[in-house]
Amino acid sequence: MGSKNPLMAFSRAVHFNTARNSSSLISWIPTGKIQQTVAKSVQLTGIGLHSGKLSTVTILPELAGKGRYFQFRSNVIPASTDYVKESPLCTTLCKDGHSVTTVEHLLSALEAIGVDNCCLQIETSNPHDDPSSEVPILDGSAREWVDAIEEAGLKAALDRSGNSCEKLAPVLKEPVTVWKNDSFIAAFPYSKIKITYGIDFPQAPEIGCQWFSLTCLDKDFFAKELASARTFCIYEQVEQLRKSGVIKGGSSKNAIVCSESRGWLNPPLRFSDEPCRHKVLDLIGDLSLLAHGGNQGLPVAHIIAYKVYLFSHLLYYGTLSFCYWHGELSNVTAYYHTV
């Protein structure tokens, strides 16, 4: 597909100021699977990429229908688009003044592995009056989360009556695209989940323009092809980012670093296209926020994204995907294909 803009194939553009009725965009179908949770608790500790502070996340089993949510001190923050907060370089959830940051790698692993219901208990080294928390970055990928979840195992999630619940999936019924500046995300009806992702870093030739496509997203594919892809940064931007108050915990141990002139500074890469694969990992984590009630978050559709380095930013600005469209759209163009 190269770098050509497929939006030109759409026959009309409409600027929305009000939310679109989601019933015309998706339908919910049974997956033939039952909702799951972890068989026993999972716990990992590490530093936060942006705060630089130590935190511990414990994944606890939960009842069917409860979905995924964070528990920070006595505060509950559902892993939902309703609680997305604008933040630089990561996905943040916020409720009643309390926030949890850098949730995308953990949520990506949970969605892909099939942990539909769980309590994500987070403890930090922050002072008690600090309402913010951050999921540990670990090695910059989702590999440690996947390994720990697989070691703990999964089990059927039961409701309060002891019954299992069928897992539903959102199926896209009509094409739709949203974009902001030169970034876009599009989705087309398709028989299964398919993701095509493109990135472009012309200032860093070793990264350059990359595309990655997957046509079968199951837990084995995720564990083998995506989970170990690490976050990355441009070396020449590091000092400016730190001055702005982010990546305080960033290092060559939790990110791959590329210089504009010298290439990769801490090779080897785990994949030749590791940066692009990592962005697919991030996208899965952000799209998982569309899940509710223990059902699937990822839409059954062909999703095409280009330079959408954090889909959560589109979520924040009101383009709450082709599934929900919560709130109003601002400075966003939505395209619908005319049949």
Task: Please explain how this structure is put together.
Helix content is 16%, strand content 33%. The protein has six helices and 23 strands. It has helices at residues 104-113, 143-152, 219-226, 238-243, 274-287, 311-316, and strands at 13-15, 26-34, 36-38, 42-47, 54-61, 68-72, 75-78, 84-85, 92-95, 98-101, 118-124, 132-134, 154-156, 166-172, 176-180, 183-189, 194-201, 208-214, 232-234, 256-259, 263-264, 301-306, 333-335. The longest helix is centred in the last third of the chain and has 14 residues, at 274-287.
Q: Name the strands of the widest sheet in spatial order.
A: 1-23-15-16-22-17-18
Strand content: 25-35%
How many angstroms separate the termini?
23 Å
Q: What is the radius of gyration?
A: 19 Å
Helical amount: 10-25%
The tally of strands reads: 23
Give the topology string: H per helix, E per strand.
EEEEEEEEEEHEEHEEEEEEHEHEEHEHE
Note the main sheet: 7 strands, mixed
Q: What is the 3D shape?
A: globular
Number of helices: 6
Mean pLDDT: 86
Overall structural class, as computed from helix and strand content, comes to alpha+beta
The unreliable regions are 1-22, 316-339
